[in-house]
Amino acid sequence: FLEAFESLLRFAENRTSSLFETAYRPMAKEAAEPVKELFTDISLYILGAETTVESAVLRFFDSLFPLVYSRLINPGITDLSEDYTECLRLTRQDINPFGHYSKNMVTELSKSLWASRMLSQALSLGIEVINSTEHAALSKECSRALVKMQYCPHCQGLTLIRPCVGYCLNVMRGCLASVAELDAQWREFISTLEYLTNEMAASHELETALAGIWSSVNEAILHAQLNGPQLSATVDKVCGQPKQQEGNLSSASIVPVKEVTGTQTFVMAHTSLSNRRREFISYMKRSRTFYASIAERLCDGDLVMRDSSTCWNGEDVV
């Protein structure tokens, strides 16, 4: 699952980077770092870090605005000082240069990434539970019962006689009583996983949200360019007028962008995660009764004597 997540994130990041390289070349080099930070924040969020999708997206647009303003809206700016850049960053939310697109991006990503984050945390919890119960400590009473069941027939020279099924079940259930108490919680855990995987396949689909980031960013930049004169007038009042080249270059031409990369890679990543989801939840549903049926699983096969009239009941051969 984590590999599939990472594959989708890298694909979405490359897709967004190629948008700048293809359509907004004057700011492509400087936009690389904000793009990288955005997808790093998304990855950390999915893995359970104490952050929010909203803070990650808004921080991205805060970093993007000075670049859009100085490279696309007013390409004649020659001196973009740290103070002026910081002023643009701080006033971005008040000026709202990207319209509703930044908020829409927060909304869309929050829904899909929430389900992915919960699933990631649920998987980590499941691993923790399995690892902690893999080496269950045996009590003295359990150890004695196991020795009696397995080896006491040997003292009578009965090395080929195996325990009776009912006897084995009684011993194993006694030994695994504390583990079997996890049954109700484990069933609930499996149901939660099923719910989360269904959510991810429905309205909270991670693949669609990540693949749409480049489009949201493109629409946001186009919106800012179209409102360039009004933005410039507002920025001049708030941050002052920066130094300009003589003649003041005209704003970069607005070029609508179609799909910036082929969809084949995305389809492969999408199919990979979708298939993993289906296979995973199908497998997990089969383990719904795992902790309740450990004794039955252990008392199966070669450990016990089945379909025979001769077996060891703890006291004698019956």
Would you spell out the secondary-structure blueprint of this structure?
Blueprint: H1 2-23, H2 28-46, H3 53-73, H4 82-95, H5 101-134, H6 140-151, H7 165-175, H8 177-180, H9 183-201, H10 206-211, H11 213-226, H12 228-239, H13 264-286, H14 294-298
Helix pairs in contact: 1-2, 1-11, 1-13, 2-3, 3-4, 3-5, 4-12, 5-9, 5-11, 6-7, 9-13
Can you describe what's shown?
This protein is mainly alpha-helical and 318 residues long. It has one domain. The protein is built from 14 helices and no strands. The longest helix is centred in the middle third of the chain and has 34 residues, at 101-134. The chain is rod-shaped and about 100 Å long. The two termini are 51 Å apart. 27% of the residues are buried. The mean pLDDT is 85. Its main location: membrane. Keywords: Cell membrane, Glycoprotein, GPI-anchor, Heparan sulfate, Lipoprotein, Membrane, Proteoglycan, Signal. It is a lipid-anchor; GPI-anchor. Cell surface proteoglycan. InterPro entries: Glypican, Glypican_CS.
